[in-house]
Amino acid sequence: MRVLLTDGGGMRTAFTAGALVELHENGFGASYFDLLVGSSGGLCGQAYFATGQVDEGERIWTNHMHGKFMKWDGLMPRNDRDHLEAVMREIEPLNLSILKQSKTKVVAALTDPAKMKMAYLSVTESEDPISVLMASTTMPFFASPRTNSGLEYYDANIICAIPLQYLDELKDIEETWVILTTPHGYRRKAWRWKMASWFVKDKRIKKLLSQRARTENIVLEEIEARQNLFVIRPDRPLPIHWRDGSQSGIKQAIELGREAARKTLTKYNCEFGH
Fold it and tell me: How far apart are CA 8 and CA 159, in angstroms?
């Protein structure tokens, strides 16, 4: 089994879109992988990757994010969730027919606020895949939890944006690829997430956010310690913040994603003689 994991990161996942295009164009498209697991913007990119719509996936960033999704309400950032859903359903519509018939399965990493733990939903087997994608991008600062099949979900980013633990549920993994939006050595700052928890009323979510940095840093350390992963990540911090919708930052992040993917593909070809 070949698995591709992606993290979230708000506007930084323009990097992921670029990396996915590069993989697709170099013979490592969705059909190369058996399973795609992601969160937030990374997951949305994987859905378009799974259907072969990598051009549409990149165009979402270049044409439909700048000044249209991440906005400001005074000093507070907010995102236009109606716009994002319209993009995936109408403007650059995800081909749901191809997605549901795909042999490559797509799984969403989410936060289950009732159980206060990570949850995983199949995107390819869902009656409404886009609703699952929308749940994966729902942060408590901007929106109420998204309901799917009667249960409420938030973005996995409340607990950990990197769905590495899902590998524990799998057997016979041949290759694991990971796309991260942060450079080697990066670690989350605990104070930032504790501060973020101040803006949330739900005590369960407050607790998860206050623990988030420690939880994700453990995962980052594990990824850097493992030698059997093909990791695509930037060499330096991206020129775009999670809430920054600048056109120049988006385009630079996409190109850096392509560049990082090329480097990892070179490593892969050297190891396997392709």
Answer: 12
Count of positions (residues) in the chain: 274
Q: What is the DSSP letter of 164?
A: G
Q: Closest Cα to residue 61, out of 39, 78, 47, 41?
A: 41
Question: In terms of DSSP bridges, do strands 146-148 and 117-122 run parallel, antiparallel, or are they unpaired?
Answer: unpaired
Distance CA 163, CA 119 (A): 10
Specify whether the CB–CB gap between 122 and 135 falls below 8 A: no
- From CA 188, how far away is CA 180, in angstroms rounded? 13
In tens, the pLDDT along 97-147 reads: 999 999 999 999 999 999 999 999 999 999 999 999 999 999 988 888 999
**Contacts (Cβ under 8 Å, ≥6 apart) of 256:** 15, 18, 234, 238, 239
To the nearest 10°, report the CA torsion of 41, 47, 49, 54. Answer: -70
- Backbone dihedral angles phi then psi of residue 245, each to the nearest 5 degrees: -105, 25
Give the sign of the dihedral formed by CA 259, CA 262, CA 268, CA 273: negative
* Helix (H/G/I), strand (E/B), else coil: 186: coil
Which residues are within 8 A (CB) of 69 and not within 5 positions of it... i.e. 6 or more apart?
79, 80, 83, 84, 245
SS3 content of the chain, % helix, strand, coil (to 5): 50, 20, 35
Helix (H) or strand (E) holding 175, with range, is strand 175-179
Determine which helix (DSSP H) or strand (DSSP E) holds 55, and give its type and residue range.
Answer: helix 54-64
- Give the sign of the dihedral formed by CA 108, CA 112, CA 115, CA 117: positive
271's tokens? 């190891």
For 251, other C-beta atoms within 10 Å of its C-beta total 17
pTM above 0.90, yes or no: yes
